[in-house]
């Protein structure tokens, strides 16, 4: 599966900034047993966070997702990561995971929030199980993986808004950008009490 040119540029941007690469995926392969030992607990933890937080629990109550299916699919994803190489197919797959969340109207703030909670658990487990040096090394690689998925999700959200705005209005991209700048200025004025010129 080839990435469209626009998406390819976003992936390159994220890959360059976060730095997830083959060395990280190699580390996951090396520590396969760590994930096999703790994968179940990690998945239960994630399911507990999203079903315990009222705003994200609503996703399941409103039928936008199924908790058992989420657990199963998280298991599949973790299994894939343990065999993955940093190919275009790998990045496309993570981008599709981002899309899965957008289609379910899961806001970016919840993606960021859950990533924070996951990090806390993975750091603790990794240090307890592997010791400080190896544990922190594995944790940092896992963090890059997690942040890549979150960054891809936020990217697809932006892309979705942009495309639907342009398609719905027939605006040029330049006009849409000018309107966005005006909206942001007025939001800032609302938040800060300054006038819209920023004074
Ligand atoms: C760091 C953030 C997150 C990561 C890494 C993550 C990861 C994943 C993965 C790997 C899948 C499976 C996708 C597939 O098989 O293609 C998935 C599905 C899903 N995720 Fe997340 N997720 C995150 C945040 C959230 C949050 C905040 C919610 C809020 C409720 C959520 C709800 C769901 C739902 C409902 C599904 C689909 C489950 C179904 O099959 O019905 N996720 N997620």
> Can you identify the CATH superfamily?
Globins
Q: Tell me what portion of residues adopts beta-strand conformation.
A: under 5%
Class from secondary-structure proportions: mainly alpha
Average pLDDT: 92
Structure description:
Helix 3 runs antiparallel to helix 5 (67-81) and helix 3 (32-52) crosses helix 7. The protein contains 8 helices and no strands. The mean pLDDT is 92. Helix content is 83%, strand content 0%. The protein has a single domain (5-169), classed as Globins (Globin-like, Orthogonal Bundle). It is mainly alpha-helical and 199 residues long. It has helices at residues 5-18, 22-30, 32-52, 54-61, 67-81, 88-103, 108-169, 173-192. It is globular. Residues 50, 56, 59, 65-66, 69-70, 73-74, 77, 96-97, 100-101, 104, 106, 110-111, 114-115, 118, 146, 149-150 line the site of protoporphyrin IX containing FE. Protoporphyrin IX containing FE is lined by residues 50, 56, 59, 65-66, 69-70, 73-74, 77, 96-97, 100-101, 104, 106, 110-111, 114-115, 118, 146, 149-150.
């Amino acid at each position: 599966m080839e990435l469209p040119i626009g998406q390819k540029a976003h992936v390159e941007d994220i890959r360059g900034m976060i730095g997830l690469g083959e060395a990280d995926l190699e580390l996951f392969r090396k520590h396969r047993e760590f994930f096999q030992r703790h994968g179940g607990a990690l998945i239960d933890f994630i399911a507990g966070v999203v079903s315990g937080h009222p705003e994200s629990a609503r996703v399941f109550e409103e039928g936008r997702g199924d908790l058992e299916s989420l657990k199963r699919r998280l298991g599949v994803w973790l299994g894939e990561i343990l065999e993955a190489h940093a190919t275009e197919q790998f990045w496309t797959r993570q981008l599709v995971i981002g899309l899965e969340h957008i289609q379910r109207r899961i806001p970016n703030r919840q993606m960021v929030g859950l990533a924070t909670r996951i990090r806390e658990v993975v750091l603790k487990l990794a240090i307890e199980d592997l010791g400080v040096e190896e544990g922190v090394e594995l944790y940092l690689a896992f963090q890059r993986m997690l942040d890549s998925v979150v960054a891809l999700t936020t990217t697809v959200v932006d892309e979705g808004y942009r495309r639907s705005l342009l398609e719905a209005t027939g605006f040029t991209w330049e006009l849409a950008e000018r309107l966005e700048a005006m909206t942001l200025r007025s939001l800032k004025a609302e938040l800060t009490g300054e006038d819209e010129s920023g004074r």
